[in-house]
User: Fold these one by one.
Assistant:
Number 1:
Amino acid sequence: MRRKKFWFILLALAVVYGVWLGFHILQFEFYTLPESASLPEESPEIKGVYHLHTKLSDGYKKPGQIARLASKASMDFIILTDHGNPNYGCLESEGWKEGVLVLAGSELSVNRGHLVGLGFDLPLTPLSRKAEEATYHLNSLGGFAIIAHPYSKTSWSWGEFIDYSGMEIINGDTMLRKKFYTWIPYLPALLIKPRLFLLRTLNPPLENLSKWDRLNQIHPLYGYYSSDAHILYGPLLSFVSLHIPLQKPLSSEFREARAQVYKSLKRGAFYNVVEAAAEARGFRFWAQKGEERQRMGSTLFFSSSPVKLKIHAPFPFKQETHLIHNGETVLKSEKNKVVFPAEQPGVYRVEVYLKEPTPMGERIPWILSNPIFLTKD
Ligand SMILES: [Zn+2]
Ligand SMILES: [Zn+2]
């Protein structure tokens, strides 16, 4: 009799869970842009996924297979970052594959944690395991260094050494490892609505954002949304992405296209998107000083002539744009176009929040821009 009761309760719980999950799956909506939502013509835009592992270290697919999935996900480029100081096999896998620009760097193991090196020429000697030495070496080879998942262990271990080019604000792999209880109930959704599952793995990157704001007071540092995929490439290639507004279309010549992407990343001329929540294309943030127009990532001298910060978030979704100045929100707007006369020097950046029903937590920036720096000296 007792046993029967036990099975009955178990069955009832399974039914309740099934209904609950089914409800969330049916309710889930991925917001797409209408075909007519075209880009400002003078300004093409490409998107790609940064920080991917392949079979050349601890990933599960070959570069060509990942490129095929990236092409399906409508990505223009991917950046492979296999482990190694550097990983020579990974570096050699660059090229056009399946119509996708495949770039490759390495994820270095150094004394302070993991450091991603990109855009560098082949080193003649291995890269140091000391973070500062490895960064100088990468810079001397024409490359740049990004601090990977800075809070994956416990606390900040990178000091205030300022020669890094960027840091990761969201890292897919770290999100999955931390607070697994937030996504475990949604695990079966991975098979039917992978975007729903992935959005549930996101936690507000508050620690990373506040550290980023503080470090930007010392030296420009650019922020990255990073996939860090080792498996599940299909869904993860539509999870988080980097969008680069270009000045001219992406070249079909590999070396030139590679330079176009790396130049933009090195200058912080890109924005980050939680791709799984809604399609984003055409977001722009720039500083206007007279006729002069400066892109994200730029540093401008703040003098007597006024600087206008302009934001275009041309999306047909409910959204809220935040302008952040030295870590403080100075403006919130639901409009598609925002003009802000900057009366103070400092570091300005933009976060756009999606206000449509979404399983993504409220405090996760759907779009995260890179900063514009207004300096006095
Ligand atoms: Zn890592
Ligand atoms: Zn990694």
Number 2:
Amino acid sequence: MTNGVCVRPVLNRVFDTQTGTDRVVGVSCGSTLVSKCPPCAEANRRLRMQQCREGWHRDTEPEPPADMDDVQDEDESAADDTESTRRVRSTRRRQDAADLPKVEMDKRTVGATFTAPNGKTYRPSMFITLTLGSYGATHRLPRHVQGKGIVPCECGVVHGRTSPLLSTPVDPDTYNYRRAALDALHFPKLVDRLMQNLRRRAGYKAQYFAVVEPQKRLAPHLHAAVRGTVARDTVREVAKATYHQV
Ligand SMILES: [Zn+2]
Ligand SMILES: [Zn+2]
């Protein structure tokens, strides 16, 4: 790492087969959040910048390396599976396939280009934020609403910034803890499927950078930068179908 040293390295015990001794080695935590580890976050930020410079704005597909012939895409490998595993898979597929219209799949990763009336061409990208639904009201800071002035929390109290109640359920009896827990448990799968479904629906191999962050109410929350653009309604439709599917 070029930018300082990780502030909370993960310790690993390494066994040296030559000397028969073991020692403890610190491995960088690799966090992308400055609040967790500034040096690692900075290193990650620089890596992303480099990756963006080299790949994000490409308008041609990179040539696959010569020795990558055997490497398959996850979507394609299913079709090449042996007969027996394919049968198993096809049953599973049907149960958890998202209810979305089929689009012919293109191998490209480059997004669509748009030409403005003045002849300039654009190839926009997009930002997606995925927020899970509400499980019930949580205590929050007073807000300023146009025409209404200061609006207090749902519970009627104007909470201070340091109130321990903030972001906790207003009514613990009706707050949907079960759903909150299930959503949090299945969130990684949800993100995987979301991108899979988005690619299927958009018809190209959209590439993305994403980060998952906890919200104050502790629900996970996804920010993704995606190469190319997909209609807003399509993204919404995919998100809904994916949530339903997972
Ligand atoms: Zn670190
Ligand atoms: Zn409150």
